[in-house]
Write a structure and sequence with these properties.
It contains 19 helices and 18 strands. By secondary structure, it is of the alpha/beta class. The strands form five sheets. It has an eight-stranded parallel β-barrel, surrounded by five helices. Helix 7 crosses helix 9. 55% of the residues are buried.
């Protein structure tokens, strides 16, 4: 299928200072809980996205110095040369697919916990009522922290990064703390008027730009509205417009988002769940600042619909489609649009399981994309499947909920000779079909729709609805061994199971019965065999834990 000509605009190159994006797709900075702790996992996760067509892939927030320690949360880091070596593989993998690599430089100021380094935190002002308990920086302190940004930018450049992003979004960075009146009650040249409150950020941008020269593009990630219509925060038509006008000459493009009076409120504002916010919901705020700059604007909007993307660019409101959650759900979103494979897009459902893991310092997961976070450790790929060593076997998957569908899909993609997906309901989808019928949860049905489409394409997978199998029914499908009988008892099939003679000569072997989510279903389906002498697995599925 060829691409719809209306979407051609999405694949135009975009100049950003000394660099050029090969298309308009920009994976905006997002957390993984890998960062500096698991650099290979981090590199492979971003590398898969570059392979999938994202013209830019970014790190998560990247600490510039030990005085900005995010513990217990896990960030990227550029404290020293060793950190730079750990991040270099990400840049290298991006370049392998002709993508640009961006780093998001961060200093937490007075909200940095510094639980690892034990360095006293300092910020724009000491404001305990806002959770900013660190000391107020003097001018020497300000110069010192700006120097940390400069040294981190140089390390990023030397490691091969193409874009340096000075982070100030989501209320979580010192740059935003200086900019917002709520967190800045200074009376010197860094407080008071908007121009003064912007001074720390603009000076930092100026110094970073001078340090990296023409080797890197420079951008700033700015929250353009804190959703409270208060001069204490940021309003699109006031503080955001004014700051963009003040700093426009210092950046090559803008990386914009809305929401986030504080870092703690970010997930409910910027990363709003689908039941509370539609795709491209921040358009009015972006329109309010468009007149402040002629530089390219990259902006998030949980974009999944190519028509919405193309219209957003064609209208002139934004120039670059920035995405975090949609890039997690489908790392190959750009490539599928480019090739006209719209039915193969695995659309983000906005459940926010990805964002909810970060406060627990837990590795990233996704309801739609079971492979995310396992690209390096298990070698999983969202679009490529290794042929099973026992592909001549047949498999029974019991339960056609989300995990059952995913298991059957992956087994089918791995080339099993026959996969039977059996469910007692008339239609597949399990309890998620009921859940997605609730008010404002319709997008969750994308979990079912994507897998239904993919299953229909697999000739070796047969969906068998309206069929209930108890223990005897399972036995009737084919023989099982003693170990499997034991497992069946453990997982709820309590009838006495008798081992039959010559059972291993039967045609439908089934090792064990599991209760699992989509992620566990993918794990099991990727296994060569779960028990010696058997093909794959029978599963009793449960609703996705989103």
């Amino acid at each position: 299928m060829s691409r719809d000509p209306r979407h051609d605009i999405l694949f135009e190159p975009v100049p950003i200072g000394p660099k050029t994006m090969r298309n308009r797709f920009y994976q905006s900075p997002h957390c993984t809980s890998f960062g500096a702790e698991v650099p290979s996992a981090h590199a492979y996760l971003r590398g898969i996205k570059a392979e999938g067509g994202w013209a830019v892939v970014n790190t998560e927030f990247c600490s510039v110095h030990p005085s900005s320690d995010s513990r217990p949360l896990i960030s990227a880091r550029l404290w020293d040369a060793e950190d730079a070596r750990n991040l270099k593989p990400m840049a290298d993998m991006a370049h392998e697919y002709d993508s640009l690599a961006g780093v998001e430089l961060w200093h937490g100021g007075g909200i940095a916990g510094n639980l690892e380094t034990r360095i006293a935190a300092g910020g724009a002002s000491q404001m305990a009522e806002w959770g900013v308990n660190g000391y107020q920086l003097n001018k020497d302190d300000i110069r010192r922290i700006q120097g940390y940004y400069v040294e981190a930018a140089k390390r990023a450049r030397d490691a091969g990064f193409d874009i340096v992003n000075v982070h100030g979004a989501e209320g979580g960075a010192i740059t935003a703390h200086f900019l917002m009146a709520k967190s800045n009650n200074r009376t010197d040249e860094y407080g008071g008027s908007l121009e003064n409150r912007a001074r720390f950020w603009t000076e930092t941008l100026e110094q970073v730009r001078a340090a990296v020269g023409e080797d890197c593009a420079v951008t700033a990630r700015l929250c353009i509205d804190t959703y409270n219509d208060s001069p204490q925060g940021i309003r699109a038509g006031e503080e955001a417009y004014g700051f963009i006008a003040l700093a426009d000459h210092l950046v090559d493009f803008w990386d914009l988002q809305a929401g986030g009076w504080s870092a703690a409120e970010w997930a409910g504002d910027d990363a709003e769940a689908s039941r509370f916010g539609a795709e491209y919901a921040d358009r009015p705020y972006l329109e309010a600042v468009r007149g402040a700059t002629q530089k390219p604007i990259a902006a998030v909007g949980r974009f999944t619909n190519p028509d919405t993307m193309a219209e957003a660019v064609r209208s002139g409101t934004i120039d670059v489609i920035a995405a975090a959650r949609p890039s997690i759900a489908d790392p190959f979103l750009p490539q599928k649009i480019e090739e006209g494979r719209y039915e193969d897009i695995r659309e983000c459902i906005g459940c926010n399981i990805c964002a909810s893991r970060f406060p627990q310092s837990a590795p990233i997961v996704c309801t739609q994309n079971a492979t995310v976070g396992e690209e390096f450790r298990r070698g999983w790929h969202p679009e490529k499947f290794a042929a099973a060593a026992n592909a001549e076997k047949t498999v029974l998957v019991l339960g056609a909920g989300p995990a059952g569908m995913e298991c059957a899909r992956v087994l089918g993609e791995r080339g099993m000779s026959a996969v039977h997906l059996v469910d007692e309901q008339e239609t597949i989808g399990g309890s998620l079909r009921r859940v997605s019928a609730y008010p404002k949860l319709g997008e969750w049905a994308r979990v079912i729709n994507y897998r239904q489409i993919q299953l229909d394409k697999l000739a070796n997978v047969e969906v068998i609805p309206k069929t209930r199998l108890d223990a005897e029914g399972v036995l009737g499908y084919g023989a099982i061994g003693a170990q499997t009988a034991k497992l069946l008892r453990v997982f709820g099939m309590r009838r006495k199971l008798k081992r039959k003679k010559n059972n291993r000569r039967q045609t439908n072997p089934h090792p064990h019965l599991l209760s699992c989510s989509i992620r566990n279903a993918a794990f099991a389906a990727h296994m060569e065999a779960l028990l010696a002498g058997h093909a794959a697995a029978i599963f009793k599925m449960v609703v996705v834990g989103a």
